[in-house]
Design brief:
3 helices; 5-stranded mixed β-sheet; globular; alpha+beta
Length: 128
Amino acid sequence: MAGVPHGGEKPVFWVGSSKKDYMNFPMPVQRDMGNALGLAQFGRKHPKAKPWKGEGGGVFEIVEDHDGNTYRAVYTVRFAETVYVLHAFQKKSPRGIKTAQGDVELIGKRLKLAQSDYEKRSNHPAGG
């Protein structure tokens, strides 16, 4: 990838099953999360986007509640030319706000996959 496309819009890449999972969300959730991802493509942050703890800077989470269910999407803007959606999931924990350990581990693994993919696409190390 030689640079950000005309107009400054970064492409979005979906890691693992994140796009399929996202497409199974209710349409209002997809619309709201899509808006947040659209802002990320132009280097902006949606007001609902909050830092994802545990993976360092540049990783964000969007949380949407719909019909008594909670949906989450975790994405990274850590790479200069690309936005990667790392995970999209419905929170299944019966109590509390803590994210299940399996989801946390999956996000860490997918962030590593995104970094590897970015380095291959851009022909230079991540972070710049």
